[in-house]
Each structure stands twice: as structure tokens, then as C-alpha cells.
Amino acid sequence: MRLIFLGDVVGKSGRDAVARELPLLRERFKPDIVVVNGENAAHGFGISQDIHQKLLGCGADVVTLGNHAFDQRETLVFIEREPNLIRPLNWPAGCPGRGTCMVETAKGQRVLVMNAMGRVMIEPMLDDPFPAVGKELDQCRLGRDCDAILIDFHAEVSSEKMAMGHYVDGRASLLVGTHTHVPTSDHQILPGGTGYLTDAGMCGDYDSVIGMDKAEPLNRFLRKLPVEKFKPAEGPATVCGVAVETDDRSGLASQISSIRLGGRLSQAEVPFW
């Protein structure tokens, strides 16, 4: 099976880049499923229903979120109507929405998409993600109950993401980190067969401070005083993510590659499709 995941979409620049590149990726590589993190898609903070629908329209099957999941208050309501929009599953009981989504591909294969959030140096402080993820994996066994499992782990520190990767190794097809907006180059297949990447990076303008226009972050670092709200940078965006090929029998990863298309960063295309 062919899986594609794209990192945090930041603002209009990121949305425009995804709208340009994702249909081309779908046409060229024929992925069975595409998952996109959309938690910064609405002017850098959260997601609106209209933007969610547009991401689906340009080729996403599932949209994941993170710590900015409910920055747009409308999300508290419409997320209940959108089964393919998921927020971190370790949000406390009573939170709107859901943390997993089962997708049936055009070939009839079942893919479990899961969203979880770390707790180290990130707010809000949610429930412990490790037992929450473990419970879901116990209830849906890779190769028995589904054909692939993709986990978006939205977390700040690399150590927590790496620990989660090893925790799910052999039980998931892909564990990919999001949140830092900086793509890492450590894509690999772990010893148990799970594809892993510490951070997918963002779909956004890299002539920025993690996707935000440079002026206000520099002001706050230099003067320690906020002057205005953060706003997304508006230059050409790089679409960043990861591609994984899975074994049809086990559901585990057989090949993995970074994706970087357009914008300022060095380009990386999938070499095995």
C-alpha cells in the first residue's frame, strides 16, 4: 500500500502549495491514502470548515490536528460532523470530535489513522499519550483488523517522538511527528518494521520563523514585548511530508522517503514509485 503524509499546513501560502502539489502527487504516484495535518491552516491557528473541505477537495483523505485544534471556535461544533477530521485522541473525555478514523481505500483496504499529542514542553497538557495510543493499537491489530496504521504524533521534543516510535514499533505502519515545522532527515524503518520520521516539517514559507512572518518573532526575541499578533509568512511555500510503501501481508513499512516540493528548501521526491 502507498501512504503519503503532509506536515502542518501553515496559512494561505501553505494551503496554496498543497492545492498545487497534492493533485500532482495523487496523479503521479497513485497513493492509496493521503493524510494532511491542518492545524495551522486558518491564518496559522486552527482550521475552519471551509478550509477542511478544500483540503479534502485537493486530495486529502484525512486531516489531523494538534495543540491548535480548537483555536477557531467553529471547530468545536463542525468537528462532530466531520469523521475524517481528527484531533489528538488523548484529549480528556468530553472533548468534541474523535482521535481516530478508519478509512477504506478504493481497493477495499482498511487504514486506521490516529492522532495523538505529546506532553513535554507543549500546551495544553493532555492525558498521557502512551497508554492512549497503546489502547487503540490493542483494539485494532495491524494485519488482522486493518491493513495499515498511520499515527500523527504532534509533539515538541524529539525524544518524546522517538520514544513513541519505539513504543509502537511493529504495531503501526508509520509514526510521523508534527508540530515543530522543521523537517528532519531521519526517515527510517525501525527494527520492528514501523516507518518513522521525527518531524515531517510544514507546508509553508520557510523564509520565516516556523511559518510566521519574521518581524514579530524577532521583535519579541529582541525587545521582549509583543507588538502585534503573529501572522503567517506569505512567500512561496515548500510542501513537506513523507511517503511510505507497506507490505500487503503484514502492513509494516517496506520503503520510506521524505517529500519536499517547491519553495526554498532542497527538493526531495519519492525514489521508489
Key features of this structure:
14 strands; 6-stranded mixed sheet; globular; alpha/beta; Purple Acid Phosphatase, chain A, domain 2; 23% helix; 273 residues; 6 helices
Description:
The chain is globular. The strands form three sheets. It has a six-stranded mixed sheet. The protein has a six-stranded mixed sheet with strand order 6-7-8-9-11-10, with helices on one face. It is 23% helix and 24% strand. Strand 13 and strand 14 (253-261) form a beta hairpin. It contains six helices and 14 strands. The longest helix has 19 residues, at 11-29. The chain has 273 residues and is an alpha/beta fold. The chain has one domain (2-261): Metallo-dependent phosphatases (Purple Acid Phosphatase, chain A, domain 2), CATH 3.60.21.10.
CATH class value: Alpha Beta
Q: Please count the helical segments.
A: 6
Q: Largest sheet, if any? A: 6 strands, mixed
Instruction: Assign the structural class, choosing from mainly alpha, mainly beta, alpha/beta, alpha+beta, or little secondary structure.
Output: alpha/beta
Number of strands: 14
Q: What's the pLDDT, averaged over the residues? A: 98
Run of helices and strands: EEHEHEHEEEHEHEEEEHEE
